[in-house]
Amino acid sequence: MDIYDAIHRRRDVRGEFTGEPIPRDVLERVLAAAHAAPSVGLSQPWDFVLVRDPAIRRAFHGHVRSERAAFAATLTGAAAERFARIKIDGVLESSLSIVVTYDPERGGPAVLGRHAIADAGLYSVCLAIQNLWLAATAEGLGVGWVSFYREPYLRDLLGIPETIRPVAWLCLGPVTHLERIPDLERHGWRRRRALDAAVHHDRWTEPAG
Ligand SMILES: Cc1cc2nc3c(=O)[nH]c(=O)nc-3n(C[C@H](O)[C@H](O)[C@H](O)COP(=O)(O)O)c2cc1C
Fold first, then answer.
1. Which atom of ligand 1 is nearest to the CA of 179?
2. Which positions of the chain have pLDDT values less than 70?
3. What is the pLDDT of residues 87-127, one digit of tens each?
4. How many angstroms separate the CA atoms of 193 and 38, rounded?
5. Closest ligand 1 atom to the C-alpha of 184?
6. Which secondary structure element, helix H or strand E, spans residue 200, and what is its range?
7. What is the pTM of this model?
8. Does ligand 1 have an atom closer than 6 angstroms to the CB of 147?
9. Residue 60: in which H helix or E strand, if any?
């Protein structure tokens, strides 16, 4: 698969996990791809917690369910009905969960390139996640990013120190297939913007309409 195929075939997966094991060499390649990401000041501020323990995953899933209910309570009418039909995680069905964390102290105190933009560290972690996502797609695996959680809960569940921020709970594993259209679009929640609407020339221009 070339890089453009991987980029365009990548999907956020919730409902298509088979639960089959991930071969060890495949997992190593996917993690190595994540670890090869660019990072501000070469700080490599990420860590990857591989969560296999079913009890931990069940506990996390219960927390996700309650956060889902909290979000659902903010919706009314058609949005509430649409959201009720959308699956938001594959925590129990996927083969492996990977929690990606951010350590703002890594490479400090003088992280080259972060003095003016503190978020540059977080951006670096997101690039590692995107590398992981694309590599997994190229390997024929699916990835689902779950953000229906409170950081203190997840820190507590996995024993993550106070100074380190959990950035993503990723569900990973073999899938029956990857959908061609994002789930949120298929369920009428939201449509993707056209590229033209996102590109500006020389100055910021307000989108038409
Ligand atoms: C930061 C971030 C958090 C996300 N959190 C969730 C989530 O909690 N549950 C979910 O089902 N999808 C989540 N997603 C997936 C998005 O809904 C998905 O990327 C988007 O709808 C586009 O679909 P695609 O990734 O298949 O192209 C998240 C994606 C990102 C980048």
1. 26
2. 208-209
3. 999 999 999 999 999 999 999 999 999 999 999 999 999 99
4. 27
5. 21
6. none
7. 0.97
8. yes
9. helix 54-72
Does ligand 1 come within 6 angstroms of the Cβ of 113? no
pLDDT digits (tens, 9 = 90+) for 69-78: 999 999 999 9
pLDDT at residue 151, rounded to an integer: 98
Class of domain 3-183: alpha beta
143 lines ligand 1 (CB under 6 A): no
The CA-based angle 121-184-192, given to 5 degrees, is 75
Q: Give the whole-angstrom CA distance, residue 128 versus residue 132.
A: 6
Cα four-point dihedral sign 141, 145, 146, 150 = positive
* Nearest alpha carbon to residue 21 among 133, 96, 99: 96
CA of 143 to the centre of ligand 1 (A): 10
Distance 139 CA to ligand 1 centre (A): 20
